[in-house]
């Protein structure tokens, strides 16, 4: 990353208190970006802030509360952001939950679809006016290898007709990818300079494998650390998507290693499931309906 391209820019990173989000925040803060850690647990966010400032004493970092499973929290966050800044350069839709027990949010939505996709959809829509006021702004949304072979089950988005954790996780990650691509398409249709890019971290050792208050077994953690790439490597596709000057929007960035599980960032080809335009448009429409958020592409 070139410091002169990032100094004095502002980035919002969801789920930035640990894992990929924290590594991304550290990289940005070290290059002069003002970083907003958008986190559900502000105590953990404050700990992350102190960690970042210890590594980069001059870093400009702040913590803001955001619960992506709660549409009211998203609305409150966006209003606070609009009160703090005139424009936004980078929105990193990073936060996610993976295979929790079947849970519905207070808005009546299955937790993974709500937090991973709908929350970021609503957040992006509400922050779009700030993004459109910044030159060359970007939205980066994290998908996953789990999007491969997944499908959007429009007849069972709330899980009331049956729930399998990994199936619903894959659905949410496919939704992330389709949203990123559809957003970029619509931005270009309106002649706007903001671009949207999707990425994935390969298989990285993070704390994503948490189940409510229960954590993954210790032996699984040891296996993760041995066979998965560290979070600092897993964050590279995100950083590349946010900063690489040659990207035009609509790309999908991931690791270059075998099976795209680890390595350095390259442009990848998504699974064919992500290229169904009818499903993408239907997903967009139902996301607007479920969140109550419509995108205003008027600059």
Can you describe what's shown?
The protein has one domain (3-291): 3-Layer(aba) Sandwich (Rossmann fold), CATH 3.40.50. Helix content is 42%, strand content 16%. The chain has ten helices and twelve strands. The strands form three sheets. Strands 3-2-1-4-5-6-11-12 form an eight-stranded mixed beta sheet, with helices on both faces. The protein starts with a helix and ends in an 8-residue tail after the last helix.
Q: Report the portion of residues in β strands.
A: 15-25%
CATH topology: Rossmann fold
Mean pLDDT over the full residue set: 90
Enumerate the spans where pLDDT stays under 50 for 5 or more consecutive residues. 209-214
If helices are DSSP runs of H or I spanning 4 or more residues, what is the number of helices?
10
Secondary-structure element string: HEHEHEHEHEHEEEEHEHHEEH
Tell me the radius of gyration: 18 Å
How many strands, what sense, and barrel or not for the largest sheet? 8 strands, mixed
CATH hierarchy class name: Alpha Beta
Distance between the termini: 28 Å
Based on helices, strands and strand pairing, what is the structural class? alpha/beta
Shape: globular
Query: Order of strands across the biggest sheet?
Result: 3-2-1-4-5-6-11-12
The number of distinct β-strands equals 12
Share of helix, binned: 40-55%
* CATH superfamily annotation: NAD(P)-binding Rossmann-like Domain
How many structurally independent domains? 1
* CATH architectural group: 3-Layer(aba) Sandwich
Protein name: SDR family oxidoreductase
Keywords: Oxidoreductase
Pfam family, one: adh_short
GO molecular function: oxidoreductase activity
